[in-house]
Amino acid sequence: MGSRIALMTKDSSSISNADLVFDAKHIWHPYSSMREPLPVYPIVSAEGVRLRLADGRLLVDGMSSWWAAIHGYNHPELNAAANQQISAMSHVMFGGVTHKPAIDLARLLLEISPTNLTKVFFSDSGSVAVEIAIKMALQFWHALGEPSKSKLLTIRSGYHGDTFQAMSVCDPITGMHEIFSNTLPKQFFAPAPQCNFDEQWNDSDLAAMEKIIRSHHQEIAAVILEPIVQGAGGMHFYHPNYLKGVRQLCDQHNILLIADEIATGFGRTGKMFACEHADVQPDILCLGKALTGGYISLAATLANDRVSDAIADGRDNGGIMMHGPTYMANPLACSIAIASTELLMNSPWVERISHIESVLGKLFTPIAAFSRVRSVRVFGAIGVVELHEPVDVALAQRAFVDRGAWIRPFGRLIYLMPPYIIDDEDLALLVNAIESYLSCT
Question: Which of 73, 98, 252, 271 has its CA 20 to 30 A from that of 24?
């Protein structure tokens, strides 16, 4: 036992071949098979926009660690917030107690979010934030004596997480959860909007959504959407008028609107929240990912008074929202989230996002000429190369790593969502890696 403890407490920056063999045999990585796992690359440290491999090579991170590390890595202000909080209190249950980090973070989130939102429910991951939002919507209608309003409506090509209610509003055909379709709640799906963000608006884009709402509004508790950017479902950028129209339809037919801003929140699209592009206020808002700058998992579900008052006045559960994650409002995570959000607000983030968009737009232009490429598109600090055929992830990642880039493709997409602090030289390195891969395969 003693030798095993000694082994586990040795320098965490040292990764041996035996470690990697153990990893391949015993550790189940995301979206990978245990029989033929995708290759993994051992990271021992990170600084700024660079990840350091165990063999000493440096990789420019084009993914912000799944869109979360917007300030880059090892940031002194976020480190200081973590160190200060962990020396006082790393965790305490949130049932029956409160603490300053949760209060200050809730106050800050309400200051920067749509003005109609007044309540904050903390959780520990984006998927759970969506689960809570759906739970709020269902309990809202139950409390108002309309339990038949128990379905969700969304659009195809969406992604909202990997837990069960969240999976039920992911695209059941083109998404990654088709095998669970017989066990998931059956929801309503409208076609994904076809008008791109910068195209001329066509009212017919809303026709299918409007038809479903008119026909089934007595069954629909809420519409849930990723505002403007459909993320992991395909990186589509749709027209703000679509979101405006959905808000109007929800108001006309007494349906709640849930905005899933887990991927788009905290500046990624050039607005603090993507729903601002349409000047729309949701009834419920889901936040996560960049909330803590990629340091530690934390999420939040924000709601307006209408939602919270109805639940509180309901007879079911005594007006209580029956949900309480163990690490809800973890003080360490809340302290880092405050520091990350203030760091963002005090930085020239709007100019940085605009600059990244401009540079990526220029660098991506030659890539559109490749025969394998179906389209390229850029919006805010998001750059997407869509191919005609699915990407061989293992082959592509090996090629990117060989060129000093960390890029994680999925489906037919090779995309970039880099940290906001990235410079032009490193953006060029990422795009050159994509171009080199396309040239050689």
Answer: 73
